[in-house]
Write a structure and sequence with these properties.
By secondary structure, this protein is α/β, with parallel strands linked by helices. It contains six helices and 13 strands. It has two domains: about 130 residues, Translation factors (Elongation Factor Tu (Ef-tu), domain 3, Beta Barrel), CATH 2.40.30; about 140 residues, Nucleotide-binding domain of ferredoxin-NADP reductase (FNR) module (Rossmann fold, 3-Layer(aba) Sandwich).
């Protein structure tokens, strides 16, 4: 082990671009140091440091020795003048192949208004991108993985297109003894991805086709809940009823220790995720300590 940070910077280049569906594109990145990229998979979060309009990156000391702590370089980034600050976005890893020094990141293409979508839409082999992610050479774990079902073997996964790469990676990692359902809401019906998963887990793709976020995801989860109740009386969690929601807060709450056979993982637009979590806990009586929910983004709010 060295003095590497658990989350470290990797200078990468675009190797391949694969259009998966009308809105999903997979970009394969290569770089010598990616042989040391962490391989935990699942819903592993990473940071993408996108180039500025002129294709350059600000000097943040990311490749100095020893490597800087995330809070240090992030503080430098925040202190940059607006015109010098490059966009940063949070994504999840789709696949890691350290033996080939490659990683895959799946992007949702939704025009050029968002910097990550705009960059991915225009990307070409050879383009550089700085990726901050787990470094296997570090002495301590990086974190950034929220999937933690503990002893549970009955699962519910629900999310929109921003959560689709994580849900797909999780499903592909599940042992055969898992059962449950996964609901993935995507921009259109043609955005369904072919993935492997345990035979006991049903995967449902929900195409919005122009409808607002959550239009099909929330009713699907409610229908799942109705089947689950099977005529049993719904319970109420008083703490959940009293929970205040700040419209500017990005909501994120994950249980440290799951007890029991059931586990729910919810991610996507913060308002949709919050309502689904409230339904599970308040209306269905599911223990809130068995529900992980992550507001990956919020309508009308930019990250960074």
């Amino acid at each position: 082990m060295t003095d590497r940070q658990p989350y470290d910077a990797f200078l990468t280049r675009v190797l391949r671009i694969t259009q998966l569906t009308p809105h999903f594109t997979r970009i394969t990145f290569g770089g010598d140091d990616l042989q040391h990229f962490g391989i935990d998979g699942l819903d592993q979060r990473i940071k993408l440091l996108l180039p500025r309009a002129d294709g350059t990156f600000p000097e943040l000391g990311l490749f100095d020795g020893p490597s800087p702590a995330m809070l240090d370089w992030y503080r430098r980034w925040r202190e940059l003048p607006d015109e010098e600050r490059n966009p940063i976005r949070t994504y999840t890893i789709r696949a890691v192949r350290p033996e080939l020094a490659e990683i895959d990141v799946d992007f949702v293409l939704h025009g050029t208004e968002g910097p990550a979508s705009a960059w991915a839409q225009a990307a070409a082999p050879g383009d550089e991108l700085i990726i901050v992610g787990p470094d296997s050479r570090a002495a301590s774990p990086a974190g950034g993985i929220e999937w933690n079902p503990g002893p549970a073997r009955r699962v519910l996964l629900a999310g929109d297109e921003t959560a689709a790469p994580a849900i797909c990676a999780i499903l592909e990692s599940l042992p055969d003894d898992f059962s449950g359902e996964a609901f993935i809401e995507v921009p259109e019906a043609g955005d369904r991805l072919n993935i492997s998963h345990p035979s006991g887990v049903t995967v449902t793709w929900l195409g919005r086709d122009g409808a607002p976020h959550g239009t099909f995801l929330e009713p699907a989860v409610a229908e799942w809940g109705a089947r689950r109740l099977s005529g049993a009386a719904a319970q109420t969690d008083a703490l959940e009823d009293a929970e205040a929601t700040d419209p500017d807060e990005v909501l994120w709450d994950v249980p440290e220790h799951v007890v029991g056979e059931d586990y729910a993982w919810l991610a996507g637009e913060a308002g949709v995720v919050t309502r689904m979590r409230r339904h599970l806990v308040r209306d269905l009586g599911i223990d809130r300590k068995a529900v992980a929910f992550m507001g990956y983004w919020r309508i009308g709010r930019a990250e960074g």
